[in-house]
Amino acid sequence: MSKSSQLNRSLGLRLVIVVVIGNIIGSGVYKKVAPMAAELQSPGWVLLCWLLAGIISLFGALCNAEVAGLLADTGGEYAYYKRIYNRFFAFIFGWSLFTVIQTAAISSLAYVFAQSFQSIVPLPPVLSSLADFSIGGVFFPFADFNVKLTAILLIILLTWVNAKGVKTGAGLSTAILLLVFAGIATIVISGLASSHGNIAKSFVMTTSTSTPVTFSAVFAAMLSAFWAYQGWAAIGYLGGEIKDAHRNIPRGIAFGVVTVIAIYILVNMTYLSLLPIPELVQVHEAGNKIAAVEAVKSFWGYYGSLFISVLILVTTLGCTNATILASSRTYFAMAREGMFFQKAAELNERQAPASSLLYQCIWACLLVLSGTFDQLTDMIIFAVFIFYGATTFGVFVLRRKMPDAPRPYKVWGYPVIPGIMVLFCAALFVNTIAVRPREAAIGMVLMLTGIPMYWWFTKRKNRVLTEEELPASKHTV
């Protein structure tokens, strides 16, 4: 292990954009149109909700970009919150990334990768006799263990790749993202040009059941879309490895999120032009189907199903890799300050935080065993929007605390845009507790374990500082 604690600033604007987009485009672009159709019963409203969720995500991203441009450093919000609020809140954020937000994102993406892999290459049963074993009737670690084992092996492999250095990990993300763009473009062009596609159908605002669309249904549909947009903030965790971070982070976030919104509108317009709402509802109710697979199968048959399954495999591989790459940097930043496990502060000979990657890998693998894809994503959205709201509120705090500080980027529409984002985050927090109490409770418990851990790390840090001072005081005497 190298004793150096300095990361290399090797990522330019191009790779910043790649990491932003790579952290966003995962499973949601293929899966979430079906539950949204079930909620809204109208193709036009589904597209509108994709746009609204994208706009809300863009509001959050632009607010984040102002904070990042002002305070850019390794660790993202962990570094920002120390300046905006205090060290305790910053630690709770970093600990929440480790226990829930980023590790559960890695786990859920790897889980979808494994499911897609099984649809192409059927996996033999593993420990099927233990499938009904449970922990408290909530967690079934050995259910679908062949899929979970594949997900775990993927996490281990990508952790090893990223231990080779940030440019290796970012280079893999670039190659994968180019394949994903090519695949999605093929679906959009072929689908809209096929005799099965009718682009006009995707803009129809009337419902298939003649029941008017309610605010509650719109909100629920947007929650599905938010999983697809999740991940744009992760670029902040790499602040110490980005050239001219104060300018390139805001630019990368804004360009990346706008690009993803455009892609999502196009590809979902294609799904809705190919599949009627009742068929999408059936896909959702089946539970084991993916809307994108059914859409491509409608004009390419079996080979279309195979093509989209491979594309989902590649996409989730890329998103898992990008998430692993970015997330471990926060724990590295915390460990440098004595507020995480000490080994995580070390870099290997490739200047990669290998120990931080290892801790992340172990916990993400355990989360794979803990639950299903939907359990994991519900926990993530509940937890992450707490901190999206906190970062956005930080725009107001910093405008008051540091009014004259140079800002490479100022959020458009201040104070209206940040205000809307803060209110929306609060509403989503309350709604998730009401409609997903179990996932909200598990997420909250994992986050609150940060309170005793903060006390333990602080006590250990103070003890180390005291021990370092003792020899000096003895020498003085």
From TrEMBL:
Membrane topology recorded in Swiss-Prot or TrEMBL: Multi-pass membrane protein
Gene3D superfamilies in UniProt: Amino acid/polyamine transporter I
Membrane-spanning segments: 12-30, 45-67, 88-113, 133-158, 170-193, 213-240, 252-274, 302-326, 357-373, 379-399, 411-434, 440-457
Record localization: Membrane
Keywords on record: Membrane, Transmembrane, Transmembrane helix
The name this protein goes by in its record: APC family permease
